[in-house]
Write a structure and sequence with these properties.
2 domains, single chain, mainly alpha, two-stranded antiparallel ribbon
């Protein structure tokens, strides 16, 4: 991609979203150090506003053509803006859920909104990276904040275990990313994506370059919970506080997918015949393993972990096509998947009995009789994630299937169809418990307005009537991909 270079002064206006988030984090650290945990609510509110404003700035000042900023280290283009909007909106929703939850459980600490914003800043850098060093800096900034969030409950054994497992296994993925990047640099002689693309076009690297790319794809597969690099996901989802789990299930997935798309369709576009097989294999394994693994779960958060693995397989199905329709389908899939996932975790967060959180499938028993509105929201959200028509999730699955079939990946599409049927089984098992089982002895407690608003808004976004807005979403995604690749 040939983008006009600009100097640092002219870069600053186009880097408004990143500068805003960095400025908030620096000021919040000072305020938090001064006012301690008394500033938690104020910083959380300001953090939500900062994230929403960053999304608004990214959209409002999106250029008509790709523009490189910060001396070519980053680029502002269509896919970057689309991904930043999804990341910021999902992070804002989960930050609001977390602030409300931690106030209720008296676990508020001022570092929470700062960690969320710093993680999002790392994701913004990831999706706009134009060289291997910027890519790594973005990944690590996001990961370092995520380690802290996973181990948020320092006195809780499960949360500490989640943080430790995430840290150790993520360190391995970081090593793979660096090792792969060193191969790419060694065989192309450059860290910049445009120079790598030129070298690939001239036939440089051969098997060694492909080996480096595979290592990088493995590292990014870890970040997006793609099998067989998913081993951290169930334990971290279960052990981390539920608002943190909701964050992990949303924003980092978008960043990892957008970064993988940028790698595949920019510097390594000339190797599509090779990497297509690798991405298709990751997709098939993720769909199969995620769907089968979820059937065996009794904990809702672990079940959603395996569900996320399967759903990332469907996203990778779109990317594996090698055509522009692939990234379009994957971006739309994510845009439709995120609200439903956040809504489900909001409802899991609302499940409390006798002041304690409950998270098992059995705790959903008879929910339709004791909490009919909550049961109705669960039903719509689960239908959407399962891809059952006419809910929004069905549109996302349909688009990735079309992209795969158009690219000749009929076998992968068949694996996806079987995985979707298997996945429907465990979603229907939850709904059967909600609607047809006898209520548990003690009813669930009531939930606050933040949870109710988040879950209701998520369900509304999956409702068939609002799917009519998909036309505008698809037009935006197609324009973004056309501009970027």
């Amino acid at each position: 991609m040939n983008s006009p270079m600009v100097d640092l002064t002219n870069s600053l206006p186009l880097a408004r979203p990143e500068l805003l988030l960095a400025g908030f984090a620096l000021i919040a650290v000072i305020l938090g150090a001064w006012f301690k945990d008394r500033s938690f609510v104020a910083l959380s509110v300001l953090g939500v506003l900062a994230l929403l404003t960053a999304a608004g700035l990214a959209i409002a000042f999106a250029p008509a053509a790709p523009v490189e900023i910060l001396q070519g280290a980053m680029v502002v283009d269509g896919v970057g803006v689309f991904a930043k909007a999804l990341i910021a909106f999902s992070a804002a929703a989960t930050l609001a859920l977390g602030a409300d939850h931690f106030v209720r459980t008296k676990e508020q600490r001022f570092e929470y909104p700062i960690m969320i914003v710093l993680a999002v800043l790392g994701m913004f850098v990831m999706v706009s990276a134009q060289d291997l060093i910027t890519l790594y800096v973005g990944v690590e900034l996001q990961s370092l904040a995520a380690y802290v969030l996973a181990a948020w409950r320092r006195d809780d054994a499960r949360s500490s275990e989640a943080g430790l497992k995430y840290f150790v296994l993520s360190a391995i993925s970081s090593g793979l990313l660096l090792f792969g990047s060193s191969f790419v640099y060694g065989f192309t002689g450059s860290i910049r994506f445009d120079a790598i693309a030129s070298a690939v076009g001239e036939g440089a690297g051969g098997l060694g370059l492909m080996f480096g790319l595979v290592l990088m794809l493995c590292a990014l597969g870890f970040k997006m919970s793609a099998a067989p690099f998913h081993m951290w996901t169930p334990d971290v989802y279960e052990g981390a506080p539920t608002p943190v789990t909701a964050f992990f299930a949303a924003a980092p997935k978008v960043a990892a997918v957008a970064l993988m798309a940028r790698l595949l369709y920019e510097p390594f576009a000339g190797l599509d015949g090779q990497w297509q097989q690798v991405v298709a294999a990751l997709s098939a394994i993720s769909m199969a393993w995620g769907s089968i693994g979820a059937l065996l779960q009794t904990n809702l958060k672990r079940l959603m972990a395996y569900s996320s693995i399967a759903n990332m397989g469907f996203v990778l199905m779109g990317l594996s096509s090698g055509e522009q329709s692939g990234p379009v389908a994957s971006l739309i899939y994510l845009a439709l998947y995120l609200p439903a996932t956040i809504g489900i975790f909001a409802l899991i967060l609302a499940m409390r009995r006798d002041g304690e959180a409950v998270e098992t499938v059995g705790d959903l028993a008879g929910l339709a009789q004791t909490r009919p509105w909550m049961a109705a929201l669960f039903t719509m959200l689960l239908f959407s994630v399962a891809g059952i028509p006419p809910f929004a999730g069905f549109i996302g699955k349909l688009l990735v299937f079309i992209a795969a079939i158009d690219a000749g990946l009929v076998g992968l599409a068949i694996v996806g169809a079987i995985a979707a049927v298997v996945a429907a089984a465990y979603y229907l098992r939850l709904l059967a418990s909600i609607w047809f089982s006898a209520p548990a002895a003690a009813p669930l407690q009531g939930y606050g307005p933040v949870i109710a608003l988040t879950a209701t808004a998520a369900a509304a976004l999956s409702f068939p009537v609002l799917v009519l807005a998909l036309g505008a979403l698809q037009t935006w995604a197609e324009a973004a991909v056309r501009m970027s690749y």
